[in-house]
Design a protein that fits this description.
Layout: H1 8-15, E1 20-22, E2 26-29, E3 32-38, E4 56-60, H2 65-74, E5 77-80, E6 85-86, H3 110-120, H4 128-135, H5 139-151, E7 155-158, E8 161-164, H6 166-175, E9 182-187, H7 192-196, E10 202-204, H8 205-212, E11 221-224, E12 237-238, E13 246-250, H9 255-258, H10 262-267, H11 279-287, H12 294-308
Parallel strand pairs: 3-4, 4-5, 11-13
Antiparallel strand pairs: 1-2, 2-3, 5-6, 7-8, 9-12, 9-13, 10-11
Helix pairs in contact: 3-4, 3-6, 8-11, 11-12
């Protein structure tokens, strides 16, 4: 019996001239047969194990770059429902590793971005009225955006309101244009915990991630604030972004300071020593980091977020 999934990559394989057939157990491409292993989510890099045999294909809804690298290094082939595929030893496939589904109706402009953030920071379904109040968007716009998100499989309607699917986080992270506003960069010799205690605001980047999902020693912190704080009086000196230990941002995006984050509260084992930025913003800031192990830190934080929901 043929097993049907939302797999645009299968159509592309056939369009490229491959004889390809997908069943519940196998993907057959040309003269090769890949044993199918279906999972509800991609593994975190530290969860990856060796495949149970040669030519095993892991199929997941979506997969991040760090997870894909770990899966490939372990000897797997993989495919994702968002249209990407990697088959070991098939050199003609890289050109097919693109999403070919219809263009999304959902952009991450200010309104949709704020709506997505509200949903991603919540642990329970939200009514349209509550989403509108938190996002600062009209009810009419909420209805339109939620309909588009539902069409793209980014949200579901549950008892009590609307919930975000995990793939909405990927869409938000890929499409979010950034906080905007004014940024200044500072260097200090004191511990980051001491540096950040001098700035009123919401804490993000390495230090916030270390509080929520410890992975490595934090080397940088971003603080979102509208306060006019004299950091030089506290022993910090202006510097460039590459040398900064603290980045102070007065954001143009109001949702960073305004959006409550019940999921972040649930992720904490003990109260945070200072207000934290929304977890969506912390993840976005981590993605901007040049650190070699940023993908592992992101995966650790995503796992905590997923568990808390």
């Amino acid at each position: 019996m043929t097993y049907i999934w939302r797999v645009s990559w299968l159509t592309e394989l056939r369009a490229a001239g491959w004889e390809a057939e997908l069943t519940s157990d196998l993907l057959i491409v040309g003269d090769r047969a890949f044993r199918v292993v279906r999972r509800a989510r991609a593994p975190w890099p530290r969860e990856v194990v060796s495949p149970p045999g040669p030519d095993c294909l892991l199929i997941v809804p979506s997969i991040t770059g760090g997870a894909a690298q770990a899966v490939e290094a372990a000897g797997w082939s993989w495919a994702s429902d968002d249209g990407r595929i990697y088959l070991r030893g098939m050199t003609r496939l890289p050109k097919l590793a693109v999403t070919t589904k219809r263009p999304s109706r959902v952009s991450m402009a200010a309104g949709p971005s704020a709506i997505a953030r509200v949903l991603l920071e919540e642990v329970a379904p939200l009514t349209q009225t509550r989403i509108a109040a938190r996002a600062g968007v009209t009810q009419a716009r909420i209805s339109q955006v939620l309909a588009d998100m539902r069409s793209d499989g980014l949200v579901v309607r549950a008892r009590g309101g609307w919930r975000a699917e995990e793939r909405l986080l990927d869409r938000w992270l890929d499409g979010y244009p950034g906080p905007g506003g004014v940024q200044t960069h500072w260097f200090g010799l004191d511990d980051l915990y001491q540096q950040v205690s001098r700035v009123p605001g919401r804490v993000s980047a390495d230090l916030a991630a270390d509080v929520l999902a410890p992975w490595r020693r934090p080397t940088h912190v971003t603080v979102y604030s509208t306060a006019n704080t004299d950091l030089e009086a506290h022993g910090l000196v202006p510097t460039g972004p590459d040398q900064a230990t603290l980045t102070l941002v007065t954001p143009a995006d109001p949702s960073i300071l305004a959006t409550p984050s019940p999921v972040t509260d649930r992720m904490l084992s003990t109260p945070a020593p200072w207000p934290l930025a929304p977890v969506t913003q912390i993840l976005w800031d981590l993605r901007q980091s040049p650190a070699a192990d940023r993908d592992e830190a992101i995966e650790a934080l995503r796992q905590r977020w997923q568990e808390a929901r």
